[in-house]
Write a structure and sequence with these properties.
14 strands, Rossmann fold, alpha/beta, Helicase, Ruva Protein, domain 3, 22 helices, about 650 residues, elongated, single chain, about 10% strand, about 45% helix
Length: about 650
């Protein structure tokens, strides 16, 4: 094909075949010579004229003026004027050229070599001329004419500098105006099929979530399969789950699996200091998606713009509400958006506007929960496949010992284990590295710089021993894993338990947790007959649990089956709008009495248990002072040893 002939237009897409991913208009080629309606050389087949910068032109002019002077001249021997006269008298000079302006002399010897020198003022006088004639030297005086371009430089240079400055200011102003004019454009990133990305094979576990999301991908790929029976694809899918469970990872997997356009944007990208920018960016985002035909729009952290409207003092944030109104209209307004699916992620579904969650907008909510044992094992395998694992590194044991961890936590666990292996100088990751990494994540980093006195260490040993003994003997609490008096994080000592896979909590379990948390304070009272500030966090935890038992979970016989907890968030301002709490002062007093009764009862229970197992408490504290860290199995053995009568006592020890 000749260059002057434009390429033929692409054939229209078949209505049966799904459209492949196309680059949106905002990411098209910026060069005008590469547009489809032009030839590669320019418009209408004509060669494109290059655009010369004024600075390039100025450089060419200066090069033409000073270039010849910068070029190296012929190789001449530099001699003094006295030597020159001596060589003339000796008859060795053949030709001499004199520059009358600079008094520079250049010439050649009879042997063909050249020389140069500088004449003194007044050369040549009559005697010099007679000498040159007598010796047969060809003498040529010259007066070079000045370059008219060089003479114009003092006049042209200020003019050129002023013109260059004006051009630079004009371009800078044009660029700023262009940025202002494009501020309403969407900042969404487009992904296409040619770009490598994540697929569902890279997402471990969560088969139910994959199935629901695959339905949307299949509809966009094969819409006729669903239209045959009249099925309608959900317009919006909301991924809900705690932070770190992989909601954004699922969106990246959809981008890799979908054979359609995929636009990714964050909720904060819509917000700007100018009024109306958010709504303009929403419109531009959906216009880009419509140009693709079938497309998926992913909005991460949608709660930043989808918060309830009209909440708080003063009516809320007008700019954010206008952005939300525009999004509601684009999703299911007067103009329909067929073939466009909205995929959003949030960990705060309770603050989203109800209009955003109704059918026709976000029709389907998919919960991405914390992973179970099988899913944790699969996630650990995914993150460990590019690591050098030791023979004793059992991922199944790690999966059992990490309940409550999200996918991001597990990825961090594997990375921390690799870092610990490097610090040990090991060539592979072993079980001790995983144990150290889990202790760092769950109990905090060890503070080697903090040195406790002997008395503080002894108090800490009995405090943590009280927690450990109660964790071992209470029937409904969590299994004891490890106890240490080494300062970690913000704590002087830590008692670590590993909770089982629980989806609901019984009253007995919560009471045992409260009793176990009070064990440290009770142990200090029994042994030292004093109280320290070490139980501050324990008291905060148990007070919160007792309050929720009474106010939210209906676990108080006196208060009864009533929930007095207000689910509205403080920053929404709805508590202020509704006029405060919904119960009387008598009810509040009754709640306080019930909370106090739960705490005092469990404290008395802790006193009774630690009094019964006082010898076991002493043995555990002594072992902590000697070893600083002991595991749950050793605590159980010391408690059994403290019984003394050989009776068997069921203890809670983690595997």
């Amino acid at each position: 094909m000749s260059e002057s002939t434009p390429p033929p237009p692409p054939p229209p897409p078949s209505p049966e075949a799904p459209r492949r991913t196309r680059r949106p208009a905002s990411t098209a080629q910026k060069s005008g010579s590469n547009r489809p309606d032009q030839s590669p050389d320019g418009k209408n087949g004509r060669p494109a004229m290059p655009k010369w910068s004024p600075w390039v032109l100025l450089g060419i002019i200066l090069l033409l003026i000073f270039g010849p002077q910068l070029l190296p001249g012929p190789d001449r021997e530099k001699i003094g004027f006295e030597d020159f006269i001596t060589q003339v008298n000796a008859g060795k000079v053949d030709e001499v050229k004199l520059n009358n302006t600079t008094l520079g002399i250049t010439g050649s010897f009879t042997d063909g070599s050249e020389f140069s020198t500088t004449a003194p003022p007044g050369f040549p006088n009559e005697s010099d001329r007679e000498l040159l004639r007598a010796k047969g030297v060809d003498f040529v005086p010259t007066t070079p004419q000045s370059n008219w371009l060089v003479s114009l430089i003092p006049l042209l240079l200020p003019f050129l500098l002023i013109m260059g400055f004006l051009v630079w200011m004009n371009r800078r102003a044009s660029g700023q105006m262009g940025n202002v004019m494009s501020i309403g454009r969407s900042r969404a990133k487009a992904y296409n099929a040619d770009r490598p990305s994540t697929t569902f094979a890279d997402v471990a576990g969560y088969d139910g979530v994959k199935t629901e999301i695959k339905e949307v991908v299949d509809f966009l790929r094969m819409p006729e399969r669903f239209k045959e029976i009249g099925a309608r694809v959900p317009k919006g899918i909301l991924l809900v789950g705690p932070p770190g469970t992989g909601k954004t990872l699922f969106a990246r997997a959809v981008a890799g699996e979908a054979g359609v356009g995929f636009l990714s944007v964050t909720g904060s990208d819509f917000m700007e200091m100018f009024v109306g920018v958010g709504a303009s960016r929403v419109r531009d985002l959906f216009q880009q998606a419509r140009k693709m035909g079938r497309a998926i729009i992913f909005i991460d952290e949608i709660d930043s713009i989808g918060r309830k409207r009209g909440a708080g003092l003063g009516g809320g944030h007008d700019e954010r509400e206008q952005t939300l109104n525009q999004m509601l209209a684009e999703m299911d307004g007067f103009e329909t958006s067929e073939g466009i699916v909205i995929l959003a992620a949030t960990n705060r579904p309770d603050i989203l506007d109800p209009a955003l969650l109704r059918p026709g907008r976000f029709d389907r909510q998919i919960v991405v929960p914390l992973p179970e044992f099988e899913e944790r094992l699969a996630i650990l395998k995914v993150h460990s496949r590019d690591k050098r694992m030791g023979p004793d590194a059992d991922l199944e044991v790690m999966a059992k010992g990490t309940p409550g961890m999200s996918g991001a936590d597990l990825a961090n666990l594997v990375n921390e284990a690799a870092l610990f292996a490097v610090r040990r100088g090991s060539a592979q990751i072993e079980r001790i590295d995983f144990e150290s990494a889990r202790d760092r994540i769950m109990m905090g980093a060890r503070r080697d710089s903090l040195v406790l006195s002997a008395e503080e260490k002894r108090v800490t040993a009995y405090h943590e021993g009280g927690h450990a003994v109660l964790a071992a003997v209470l029937p409904n609490g969590d299994a004891l894993h490890k106890v240490t008096i080494l300062p970690r994080g913000m704590a002087l000592g830590v008692t670590q338990t590993l909770p089982e896979e629980r989806h609901s909590f019984s009253k007995d379990y919560i009471l045992d947790r409260i009793c176990m948390a009070l064990g440290g304070r009770v142990a200090e009272q029994l042994v030292f007959q004093q109280q320290t500030t070490g139980a501050a966090n324990d008291l905060e935890v148990v007070t919160g649990l007792a309050r929720r038992m009474v106010r939210e979970w209906g676990m108080s016989d006196k208060v009864g089956p009533m929930a007095w907890h207000n689910n509205q968030q403080v920053f929404l301002g709805e508590d202020l709008m509704t006029g405060g709490r919904e119960y009387s002062d008598d009810t509040a007093r009754m709640m306080d009495e019930e909370i106090n009764q739960i705490l005092t009862t469990q404290e008395k229970r802790a006193v009774d248990l630690l009094t019964t197992h006082r010898r076991g408490l002493d043995l555990v504290a002594t072992a902590l002072l000697e070893k600083e860290t002991i595991d749950g199995t050793e605590v159980a053995e010391l408690v059994q040893q403290g019984m003394g009568d050989g009776s068997s006592l069921p203890v809670q020890v983690a595997d």
